[in-house]
Design brief:
The chain is mainly alpha-helical. The protein has one domain. Helix content is about 80%, strand content about 5%. A two-stranded antiparallel ribbon has the order 1-2. β1 and β2 form a beta hairpin. α3 runs antiparallel to α4 and α5 crosses α9. The protein is globular, with a radius of gyration of 19 Å. The N and C termini lie far apart (about 40 Å). The relative contact order is 0.12. One of its GO terms (molecular function) is phosphatidate cytidylyltransferase activity. Its EC number is 2.7.7.41. It catalyses: a 1,2-diacyl-sn-glycero-3-phosphate + CTP + H(+) = a CDP-1,2-diacyl-sn-glycerol + diphosphate.
């Protein structure tokens, strides 16, 4: 527990000033986090970091993350897909169609999530803190209420410790924390819409947590990485955010 607390304090002291400042330092941070996230996925798959598919995937990720206009990044992803498919022929199926699917899914999972991370911050500091507070409240509520009141397993084969009661508690805690946040620092155009969005994002945040638990269980690893002592890897800390940030980004664009 002491190690977790120390790591959290050090990480927050580095992370929060960059989030608050925004701009190019935040873009650099986004690139670093996304690169580590993709590395964690390829390592779980036991793919060589210096193989052609890995090199192509990292290049595609770095090009994809840049805040282009006119959807150029979508074409970058398509070109990356074609290159990986061509490599199945060159490698005589040593690199398979299934492997291509893994790399593209990984690029979308990490790339779209962190692309949205940058753009939500660009939309305004209040939006990124809304996302951070929402996930913190959801995770904390699910943990403590699950421990106190949890009886019915939510998804036992994927994450044995999560309960239905905890999941509901997480949503209720998110609603409470977001309501206080909106009261102190109003930013939403409509409070009822904010509450509806909070419920949806809280649910998706918990699904993001379960998704990462599912692929870690599939690949037989406890944590996605060890870069954060006591907390695991980048994907262990950003699993929920990678699910809610694209939705929040879309919501901001629509509104």
């Amino acid at each position: 527990m002491k190690q977790r607390i120390v790591t959290a304090i050090i990480a927050a002291s580095v992370f929060l000033p960059i989030v608050i400042y925004g701009g190019w330092p935040f873009l650099v941070l986004t690139y670093i986090l996304a690169t580590i996230g993709l590395f964690e996925l390829t390592r779980m798959k036991k793919m060589s970091l210096f193989s052609f598919p890995s090199i192509v995937s990292f290049l595609v990720l770095w090009l994809f993350l840049y805040p282009y206009e006119h959807m150029i990044n979508i074409w970058i992803l398509i070109i990356g897909l074609f290159l990986l498919l061509i490599y199945t022929v060159i490698s005589k199926n040593a690199f398979t169609f299934d492997d291509v699917g893994f790399m593209i899914a990984s690029l979308l999972y990490v790339g779209v999530g962190f692309y949205s991370f940058f753009h939500v911050r660009e939309a305004g500091l209040s939006y990124i803190f809304y996302a951070l507070f929402l996930i913190w409240a959801t995770d904390s509520g699910a943990y403590f209420i699950g421990r106190a009141l949890g009886k019915r397993k939510l998804w036992e084969h994927i994450s044995p410790n999560k309960t239905v009661e905890g999941a509901i508690g997480g949503i209720l805690c998110a609603l409470f924390v977001v309501s206080v946040y909106e009261w102190l620092l109003p930013f939403a155009p409509s409070f009822p819409m904010l509450l509806i969005a909070t419920v949806i994002l809280s649910v998706f945040g918990q699904l993001g947590d379960l998704v990462e638990s599912a692929f870690k269980r599939h690949y037989g690893v406890k944590d996605s990485g060890a870069i954060l002592p006591g907390h695991g890897g980048i994907l262990d800390r950003f699993d929920s955010l990678l699910f809610i940030l694209p939705i929040l980004h879309l919501f901001y664009l629509i509104v």
